[in-house]
Structure formats: C-alpha cells, structure tokens
C-alpha cells in the first residue's frame, strides 16, 4: 500500500473512477472501505450497488438494511438465489428507494413474502426476473407487484405457478409495463388477459410455449395484440402427442406489429410425427399488420439437411409474396447447428427461399 501522503496526489475524480471499476468485487471494496476515510463513501456505494445473496445471508442482510436506510438506498440491483423459501422477517417496507432490478432464482415464494421489497421500491423498480421459482399464489404475487408503478420489464421463466381454486383477485394492471417475457408461463397470460386495459404500454411480447398453452396465448392477443410492436414465439414440440389441429396460432389482432420472430426446432423431439411445425405457415398467413418491417426466423439444425424438410419453406415464400407483406424490409434466417450438424445450410435455405432472396431482403447466416 503506498504511503498515505501519496493518496492525496490522485485527483478525487480519478479515485472515484477506480472505485467504480471495482464494482462487483466485494472483497476488494470491503478492503477499500477500511483503507481510508476518503474512500469509504464511494467504496460503500459501489459495494451495495449490485447485491448478490444466497440462502446463507439473505435473511441477515435484509435484517441489516431494514435498520440502515442509507445503505438500503445504495442498492440498484438485487440477485437472490435459492433453493429456499423466502420469508421476510420484517413486515415493514425496506427503504430500497433506488432499487431498479430484481432477479430471483430457484426460490419458493409464499404469499406476501416480497411485499416489503416491492413496497420499498415502488417508485424505482423497473425490471423483475423470476427464474425457476415456485410462486405459491400467483394472484397475490401479481397483486403485490402492482405497487411497482414504474415496472417496465417482467420476465418469468420455467417457474411453477400456483393458481388458487377460488375466484380471481382484483388486479388493476401494470400501466408502465413495456416488455413481457414468459417461458412456459401461460397462467400469467391467462391472468393478465382478464384485465381490460391492464397493460396499456405493452409493446414487446416474447414467449416460449407448449402446445396446450396456445389457447391462452390467443386469448391474450385478442386483448392486447393490437398494441404490440414486436412479437417472439418459440413453440416447444411435444413429440408424438403433438396435434396440429389444436395448435392454431392467430396473429390477426396484431395490426401494429413491426417485428415478428419465430424460434423453431426443425427436428421433432423423441418419436415425433414431423408435423410439429405445421402451425408456422398458417400463423404467418393470419398476420394482418400492414407495417411489418422485419421477419426473424431462428432455426435449430440438429442433424443434416433432411431437418429442413420439416419446415414448409414454399408455404412461407407464398405467404410473403402477398401484397400485405410489401412493407417487409428484411427477412433474417439464423441457423444454429448442433454438434452432429456439419453441413452449410445457408445455400440450401437461400434456394428454398429463392423468391424472397430475389427481392434482396433475405439475410441468412449461421449463428452460435
């Protein structure tokens, strides 16, 4: 450590930049807090800027910040990882007045357990991500989250969501929500679709669905599809249980759509019948957006060129030749190759989409 006198030769602005660069390195920042009084405010600010907690320290941490409002105000992002039941000890709101991002992973969330955090960050929270969590009462969870008036981005993925048998609780909606990402969480779609005008700012919807979740998706589009600007659909095939007659994806309500994205597995899972992508062309044909600018199709190539036979490229070309798609400026086809797929699929896809390629709007390439 240099002599104390030499510390004064470094401008304060440079010292702050150095301490900002250490953000995320908790051990070094703790050492900086103890080095000199001049470093303490900035080092402590960066120490609590992004907080990462686990099952061993989550309760003790919140017991501390519930008594220290200054420290609580430093927190900008909060990541809590289980597996464990989240039980907040304090019933009062924690003054995390600058908290913007919450990321919860592998947590079991009882009703009202997150109320102190949501209430404390009511005017600052903009993004919430739930990944592999178990929500014991979905309606209560959504009702608690409504106090976050500035919530713009909500992501719920691979989570177990319990819906009560009794009637649905009153939900007002999320007036600031712009992006909704749901991975196998159609129960959220079902709940939100029952709130007329509950998502007035929603413009981006990204979904990963199983076939039985399609009706909930269609119902959601009937309510909010007319305001969407970007829609991403990833359909997970169910092998031989796949029934194309019940998988009718209708994009008819999405009249303002600018970007449409399909993420597709070319080869069916297990012993599938090979008709798992039969919904793609009818879905594209149902689109009525007059201003669609970009069509993005992500393909997962597992084996060889025979994988391409599962997708009706001719049908896609036929639909895109219709007058309502004259606004299309670019069609992107991204091919992700599995370990056994060694072929160059780009020339094959360009040949299959020759009519689109002639228009000069096709962009096809391999992706990682």
Describe the structure.
28% of the residues lie in helices and 23% in strands. Strands 1, 2, 3, 4, 5, 6, 7, 8, 9, 10, 11, 12, 13 and 14 form a 14-stranded parallel beta sheet that branches. Helix 7 links the parallel strand 3 (101-109) and strand 4. It is of the alpha/beta class and 368 residues long. Helix 3 (26-33) packs antiparallel against helix 4 (40-47), helix 9 runs parallel beside helix 10 (214-224) and helix 11 packs parallel to helix 12. It has helices spanning 4-7, 12-21, 26-33, 40-47, 58-65, 69-74, 115-120, 138-145, 186-192, 214-224, 280-286, 313-320, 346-352, 354-358, and strands at residues 50-53, 77-85, 101-109, 127-131, 134-135, 153-157, 160-161, 179-183, 204-210, 230-236, 259-265, 294-301, 330-337, 362-367.
Shape: globular
Number of helices, counting only DSSP H or I runs of 4 residues or more: 14
Which consecutive residue ranges, at least 5 long each, have pLDDT under 50?
A: none
Helix content: 25-40%
- Helix-and-strand structural type: alpha/beta
What proportion of the residues form beta strands (DSSP E)? 15-25%
What radius of gyration results from the CA coordinates? 25 Å
Q: What's the count of strands?
A: 14
Distance between the termini: 45 Å
Mean pLDDT: 87
* Largest β sheet strand count, sense and barrel closure: 14 strands, parallel
């Amino acid at each position: 450590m240099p002599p104390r006198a030499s510390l004064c030769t470094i401008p304060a602005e440079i010292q702050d930049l150095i301490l900002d660069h250490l953000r995320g390195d908790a051990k070094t920042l703790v050492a900086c807090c103890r080095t000199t009084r001049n470093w303490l405010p900035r080092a402590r600010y960066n120490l609590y800027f992004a907080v990462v907690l686990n099952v061993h320290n989550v309760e003790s941490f919140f017991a501390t910040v519930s008594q220290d409002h200054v420290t609580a105000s430093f927190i900008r992002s909060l990541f809590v990882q289980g597996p464990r039941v989240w039980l907040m000890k304090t019933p009062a709101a924690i003054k995390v007045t600058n908290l913007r991002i919450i990321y919860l992973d592998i947590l079991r969330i009882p009703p009202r357990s997150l109320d102190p955090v949501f209430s404390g960050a009511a005017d600052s929270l903009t993004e919430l991500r739930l990944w592999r969590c178990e929500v014991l009462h979905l309606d209560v969870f959504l009702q608690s989250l409504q106090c976050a008036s500035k919530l713009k981005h909500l992501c719920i993925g691979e989570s177990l969501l319990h819906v009560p048998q009794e009637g649905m609780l009153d939900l007002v909606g999320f007036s600031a929500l712009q992006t909704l990402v749901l991975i196998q969480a159609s129960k959220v779609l079902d709940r939100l679709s029952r709130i007329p005008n509950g998502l007035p700012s929603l413009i981006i919807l990204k979904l990963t669905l199983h076939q039985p979740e399609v009706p909930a998706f269609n119902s959601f589009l009937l309510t909010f599809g007319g305001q969407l600007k970007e829609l991403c659909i990833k359909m997970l095939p169910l092998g031989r249980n796949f029934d194309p007659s019940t998988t009718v994806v209708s994009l008819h309500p999405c009249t303002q759509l600018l970007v449409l994205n399909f993420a597709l597995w070319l080869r069916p899972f297990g012993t599938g019948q090979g008709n798992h992508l039969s919904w793609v062309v009818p879905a594209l044909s149902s689109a009525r957006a007059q201003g669609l600018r970009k069509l993005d199709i992500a393909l997962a190539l597992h084996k060889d060129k025979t994988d391409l036979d599962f997708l009706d490229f001719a049908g896609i070309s036929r639909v895109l030749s219709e007058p309502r798609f004259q606004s299309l400026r670019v069609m992107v086809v991204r091919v992700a190759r599995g370990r056994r797929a060694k072929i160059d699929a780009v020339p094959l896809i360009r040949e299959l989409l020759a009519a689109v390629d002639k228009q000069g709007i096709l962009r096809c390439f391999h992706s990682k």
